[in-house]
Amino acid sequence: MGRAHATAAWREVARLPRHPCPTCHHASLVRYGGEEDVECQTPWCQSVFEWGRYAIWVRRITAERPDA
Question: For a FRET experiment, which of 11, 37, 48, 51 has its CA 20 to 30 Å from that of 23?
């Protein structure tokens, strides 16, 4: 899947650097245009989250750290 994204350079990429990946804790989450999922770009992680799950993660972090 990563190679397909690399060849489709016209696809919009929304980087989500404000909150880290729930799995690897790196700030490397992206959401590709037209996709519902959020993906981690860390090579050894590459976790995929549904948008709703990502939203829950963000709410949780925001509740724990209001400055986040």
Answer: 11
Side chain identity at residue 60, one-letter code: R
φ and ψ at residue 40, rounded to 5 degrees: -90, 135
Largest CA distance in the chain: 39
Instruction: For the chain, list the strands marked E by DSSP.
Output: 13-15, 29-32, 37-40, 48-50
Beta bridge partners of 17: none
Closest CA to 35 of 54, 21, 17, 19: 54
Alpha helices in the chain (DSSP H): 2-7, 51-64
pLDDT digits (tens, 9 = 90+) for 2-34: 566 556 556 678 888 788 899 999 999 999 888
Q: Which residue has the higher pLDDT, 7 or 63?
A: 63
